[in-house]
Structures are given as structure tokens and as C-alpha cells.
């Protein structure tokens, strides 16, 4: 059995306009103790995808040591990016395709995510947004509140 703590990382991002003012929300749930911590933030001019990614980044950055992390997100962009696209991009020198020199969009954030994932044992779970998942709904509330604050 692993001695790494198990954490569920719930995330969501929001943006008013695309680009526009954006926000992200996170719930960190330590499985063994049941403790929860909420985080949120935003930017004045950003995109929805960047806020979805920032939620993941900020959640992982908040962990003090390597953890077994289950990322729960309603962002297909983040879920597919982490599990399908990013490993290929990394192997191809951060290019979309071996023969296409263009880097993926949001390269700066994908590279941050890659560094953080390397420190943890991360799995992803996609959930439908606005479908009544309590933690996803709460993360959405946090993200939207930040969007309004930065608007």
C-alpha cells in the first residue's frame, strides 16, 4: 500500500466572454481525514480553457508533498489534454504533430501541468458540468464569483 496521501481535486473554470474576465475554483479533499479546502482566483482577460487549466495548476500547487490525486473536472479539454494529448506533445518536443512545428495552444500552462503531474500520481475523472455534481457545482460557484470580481 502506498504511503502517499490520497486527495480528490475538484476543479472548474469560468469566463465571461472568451476572452474576458475569468475565474477558477478548486476543492481539495483529503480522503483519509475528510478535510476540505477551497481555493479560487481569476484574471482580468483570459479564456475559459486557461481558467480550467489554472484550477488544476493551483490545486496541484497547493499540495505539500507527493500525493495520489484524483482530478475531477467537467472540462473535456483538461481531461483529454492530460490523458491523451499532453503525453504525445511531450514526446514530440511540445509540438502538435511530429511534422508540424506549431506548439499546442496554452503551451505555458500545459508545461506547468506536466511538471506538477510528474510530482504526483494523477488520474482524471470527467463529470458533466451543471449536472448536479455537488463539488463541481461548488467549484463553478467559486469560479463564477471570481469572474464577476475580475470583470
| Portion in beta strands | 25-35%
Label the structural class: alpha/beta
Strand order of the largest sheet: 3-2-1-4-5
CATH topology: Nucleotidyltransferase, domain 5
Q: Total number of β-strand segments?
A: 5
Number of domains: 1
| Level-1 CATH class name | Alpha Beta
Largest sheet: 5 strands, mixed
Radius of gyration: 15 Å
Judging by the overall fold, what is the CATH architecture?
A: 2-Layer Sandwich
Number of helices: 4
Low-confidence spans: none
How confident overall, as mean pLDDT? 95
Helical fraction: 25-40%
Element pattern in H and E: EEEHEHHEH
Topology:
Blueprint: E1 6-15, E2 20-30, E3 36-46, H1 48-61, E4 68-73, H2 76-91, H3 107-117, E5 121-126, H4 134-150
Parallel strand pairs: 1-4, 4-5
Antiparallel strand pairs: 1-2, 2-3
Could you please describe the fold and organization of this structure?
The chain has 151 residues and is α/β, with parallel strands linked by helices. It has one domain: 2-Layer Sandwich (Nucleotidyltransferase, domain 5), CATH 3.30.420. It has four helices and five strands; from the N terminus they run E-E-E-H-E-H-H-E-H. It has helices at residues 48-61, 76-91, 107-117, 134-150; strands at 6-15, 20-30, 36-46, 68-73, 121-126. Helix 1 runs parallel beside helix 3. 34% of the residues are buried. The mean pLDDT is 95.
Amino acid at each position: 500500500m502506498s504511503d502517499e496521501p490520497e486527495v480528490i481535486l475538484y476543479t472548474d473554470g469560468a469566463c465571461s466572454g472568451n476572452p474576458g474576465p475569468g475565474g477558477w475554483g478548486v476543492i481539495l479533499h483529503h480522503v483519509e481525514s475528510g478535510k476540505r479546502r477551497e481555493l479560487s482566483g481569476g484574471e482580468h482577460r483570459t479564456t475559459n480553457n486557461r481558467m480550467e487549466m489554472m484550477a488544476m495548476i493551483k490545486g496541484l500547487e497547493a499540495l505539500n508533498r507527493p500525493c495520489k490525486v484524483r482530478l475531477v473536472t467537467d472540462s473535456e479539454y483538461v481531461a483529454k489534454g492530460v490523458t491523451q494529448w499532453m503525453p504525445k506533445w511531450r514526446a514530440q518536443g511540445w509540438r502538435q504533430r511530429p511534422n508540424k512545428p506549431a506548439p499546442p495552444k496554452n503551451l505555458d500552462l500545459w508545461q506547468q501541468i506536466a511538471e506538477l503531474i510528474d510530482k504526483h500520481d494523477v488520474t482524471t475523472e470527467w463529470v458533466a458540468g451543471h449536472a448536479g455534481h455537488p463539488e463541481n457545482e461548488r467549484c463553478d460557484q467559486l469560479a463564477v464569483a471570481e469572474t464577476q470580481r475580475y470583470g
